[in-house]
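Run log, item B.
One chain of 154 residues. Sequence copied directly from the ordering sheet:
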Amino acid sequence: MKVYSYMIEAHIVRKVDGNIEFLLLKRSDKDIYPGVWQMVTGSILSGEKAYEAAIREIKEETGLTPLKLWVVPYMNSFYSRYRNHVCMVPVFCALVEGDCDIKISDEHVEYKWVNKSEAVKSLAWIGQRNSVEIIHEYLTNEINVLNFEEIKFK
């Protein structure tokens, strides 16, 4: 069995009154997993780096440009029975302005800003819930044992 990496997962966060909020998007009924709440996800295009895909997908799905982007020291994965392979999914965290204007794509029908607990309750997959926990811990602890690499771009 082969292992591939052709998708990204990007969690968009903002700080409001000292609290971390996560942006969740509700999938439309047109696609796979209708009505499921998720973060930004998408494919890595040929010749594109994973972090470039994250920035592009964030812009396409929300209209936002991150202030900061970090590599989260965590990888999600899934098995595709149709392709008979494992896909490794790099995870990113994007910080945006607190009062940003969201423009969701037709892939989604709704969005909401939620705290960590609500994000964990809303997400369907345990790996995505784990990502939220790791990101929240990193952004709220003064002393971090985790090392999030910041990606400089613009």
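Observations after the first pass:
- Residues 17 and 98 are 9 Å apart (CA to CA).
- The mean pLDDT is 93.
Flagged for discussion on Thursday.
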